[in-house]
Amino acid sequence: MAKTKISEYSATPADNTDISNINIAEGCSPANVNNAIRSLMAQIKDLQAGTSGDTIPLTAGGTGSTTASAARTALGVVIGTNVQAYDANTVFDDVSATFTAANSFTAKQTFTGSSSVISSKFVNALEGVTVSATAATGTINYDVTTQSILFYTSNSSANWTVNFRGSSGTSLNTAMATGESITVVFLVTNGTTAYYNNAVTIDGTSVTPKWQGGSAPTVGNASSVDAYSYSIVKTGSATYTVFASQVQFK
User: Fold this and answer.
1) How far is residue 82 CA from its own chain's centroid?
2) Residue 206 counted as domain residue
3) How many whole angstroms separate alpha carbon 76 and alpha carbon 17?
4) 34 and 139, same domain (yes or no)
5) Alpha helical stretches, state H, 75-231
6) Run of H or E residues at 69
7) CB-facing half-sphere around the CA of 125: CA atoms within 13 A
8) Do 133 and 199 fall within a single domain?
């Protein structure tokens, strides 16, 4: 078979007897040598230009792909039009980077600075908010992987327990590592009869927050929106310190 691209050559030298069907076997004419070198140079250029159909494997520093989308898949990066998604834990360590397109991170990313470099800077940032025409009552599961702010717009109908978790299938203990914290806000609408958050649990286990001002709330604020802020610090396995506050907005 005529060897018309790099991938068709053999790692065994004796098996390489032609280049693009130009005979280079022992005793070939000098003209064949000249023509074969020229053909080989053209094949190398085709590889560099991406027109040969050849690929360079990952183990050789390539992507093993012939298209940009296939290359991103081979490298473990899923991307759509102008959107780059990192689908595994990625560590950005002492790197100054500017993202000019929308980027979607589908797993926890770690931005690591140093003792002299801040790890990240946001000129502006958006937080996810869930707005729900729901009345606070009973036990409310707050999934921290869903939003940073949860807003109940219907009047509360009883005092409630807020239970923090990662999601319905992931505990907060799994979602967080020791030495990490997360801050979330729960906005609760009250009518003329006001109710309040009278218990806090994490993954179904009761915790006692440290409330701003030193005392837990004993009432809600009528005809208002009460904003509850919770800063949850994981200090050990399934062990947390929660700093909470209640602020009235009217």
Assistant:
1) 16
2) yes
3) 39
4) no
5) 172-175
6) helix 68-74
7) 7
8) yes
How far the first Cα of the chain sits from its last, in Å, is 82
Strand partners, 166: none
d(CA 159, CA 161) in angstroms, rounded, equals 7
- Using one digit for the tens of pLDDT, what is the confidence trace for 163-192? 999 999 999 999 999 999 999 999 999 999
Structure tokens at 71: 């290359």
Which residues constitute the domain of residue 14?
6-49
The DSSP secondary-structure symbol of 170 reads: B
Element at 72 (helix H, strand E): helix 68-74
The beta-carbon contacts of 1-7 under 8 Å, at least 24 apart in sequence, are 4/43, 5/43, 5/46, 5/47, 5/52, 5/53, 5/54, 6/43, 6/44, 6/47, 6/52, 6/54, 7/54, 7/55
Contact of 84 with 101, CB cutoff 8 Å: yes
One-letter amino acid for residue 87 of the chain = D
pLDDT digits (tens, 9 = 90+) for 34-65: 888 888 888 888 887 878 878 888 777 777 78
Indicate whether this model's pTM tops 0.90.
no
